[in-house]
């Protein structure tokens, strides 16, 4: 762990972890939740337009210079109950910088008022619109934490052998997942064992909001817990995971099962990384991740759909 990452980890441990307690976690959904606006530096760097899709706000960031035939759809995390926060804008900025990609950021509805099927309705309309308006584009899905879990769930449904023609729009050309929440059942005992070392997550609070997010579905439904779905046929997928993140055990199981099913999944584990460590963009570890992602996106526009295909590590 670099010195910067070590300092950030210590500071995180000084903050209250409301997801450790179900009682404290319940309070999140009763408080006003306001999304962080794009910071000024992003507004200077990108042209930002706001639209409404399926009743939800969607921001589109386009480079002011040359664009490439790439669209990146980014889904923010927050245990399906928290709004987009400032570090997630930093992630979005880093992903877009130097790629020429158009970045689409939907603000999907949050629990307890909204559920996974609402998000799927939004994303079905949004992804179909992207394919219709930019048919030449390579379309990538990316996200952190819960948002990464939702991105994977969309890809699982869009890649399923039972997917309808309409559902196939959900299948991206590639996935970039940062500390994804792939199994909301939180039944893996290894997660509980890792809880003390995770400054941000807690099993009991996550179980609560995973159940709320599921709505009328079971928590083991693939829309809710995509690691439990059909994992064959996934597009090239890159997963970046911290070793001090209690999601790690489930992510490792997912990656192994997806590879066994023939899907090209690359998992990179940063041993001392905390949950969504890439949000701390000053760290050398984070910079290395963004360099790799940007290079993969650039390469995809130069050498066609097989460029940057994932591989086992």
Q: How would you describe what is shown here?
A:
There is one protein chain. With 313 residues, the protein is of the alpha/beta class. It has one domain (3-303): Alpha/Beta hydrolase fold, catalytic domain (Rossmann fold), CATH 3.40.50. It has 10 helices and 8 strands. It has helices at residues 3-13, 22-26, 40-45, 86-96, 116-133, 146-159, 189-194, 203-214, 248-260, 284-303, and strands spanning 46-53, 56-63, 70-75, 102-106, 138-144, 174-178, 237-242, 265-270. Strand 3 (70-75), helix 4 and strand 4 (102-106) form a beta-alpha-beta unit. The protein is globular and about 45 Å long. GO terms for molecular function: hydrolase activity. The active site is at residue 145. Keywords: Hydrolase. Pfam families: Abhydrolase_3. Belongs to the 'GDXG' lipolytic enzyme family.
Tell me the helix content.
25-40%
- The CATH top-level class label: Alpha Beta
User: What share of the residues does DSSP label as strand, in percent?
Assistant: 15-25%
Order of helices and strands: HHHEEEHEHEHEHHEHEH
The class by helix and strand makeup works out as alpha/beta
Which strand order spans the largest sheet, edge to edge or round the barrel?
1-2-4-3-5-6-7-8
- Count of separate DSSP helical elements: 10
Low-confidence parts lasting 5 or more residues at pLDDT below 50? 304-313
CATH fold-level topology = Rossmann fold
What's a concise summary of this model?
The protein has helices spanning 3-13, 22-26, 40-45, 86-96, 116-133, 146-159, 189-194, 203-214, 248-260, 284-303; strands at 46-53, 56-63, 70-75, 102-106, 138-144, 174-178, 237-242, 265-270. The protein is α/β, with parallel strands linked by helices.
């Amino acid at each position: 762990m670099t010195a910067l990452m070590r300092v950030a980890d210590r500071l995180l441990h000084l903050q209250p972890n409301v997801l450790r307690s179900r009682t404290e976690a319940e309070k999140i959904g009763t408080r006003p939740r306001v999304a962080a606006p794009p910071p000024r530096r992003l507004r200077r760097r990108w042209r930002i337009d706001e639209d409404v899709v399926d009743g939800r706000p969607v921001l589109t960031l386009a480079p002011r210079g040359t664009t490439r035939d790439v669209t990146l759809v980014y889904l923010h995390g927050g245990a399906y109950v928290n709004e987009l926060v400032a570090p997630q804008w930093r992630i979005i900025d880093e992903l877009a910088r130097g790629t020429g990609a158009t970045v689409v950021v939907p603000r999907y509805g949050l629990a307890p008022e909204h559920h996974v099927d609402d998000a799927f309705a939004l994303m079905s309309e949004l992804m179909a619109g992207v394919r219709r308006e930019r048919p030449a584009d390579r379309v990538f899905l990316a996200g952190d934490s819960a948002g990464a879990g939702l991105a994977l769930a969309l890809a699982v449904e869009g890649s399923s052998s039972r997917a309808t023609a309409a559902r196939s729009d959900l299948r991206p050309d590639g996935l970039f997942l940062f500390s994804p929440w792939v199994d909301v059942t939180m039944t893996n005992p290894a997660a509980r064992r890792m809880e003390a070392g995770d400054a941000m997550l807690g099993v009991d609070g996550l179980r609560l909001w995973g159940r709320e997010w599921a709505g009328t579905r079971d928590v083991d439904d693939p829309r809710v817990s995509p690691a439990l779905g059909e994992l064959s046929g996934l597009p090239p997928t890159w997963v970046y995971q911290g070793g001090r993140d209690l999601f790690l055990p489930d992510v490792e199981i997912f990656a192994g099962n997806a590879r066994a099913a023939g899907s090209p999944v690359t998992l990179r584990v940063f041993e001392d990384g905390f949950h969504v460590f890439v949000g701390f963009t000053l760290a050398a570890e984070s910079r290395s991740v963004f360099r790799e992602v940007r290079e993969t996106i650039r390469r995809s526009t130069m050498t066609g759909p097989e460029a940057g295909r994932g591989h086992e590590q």
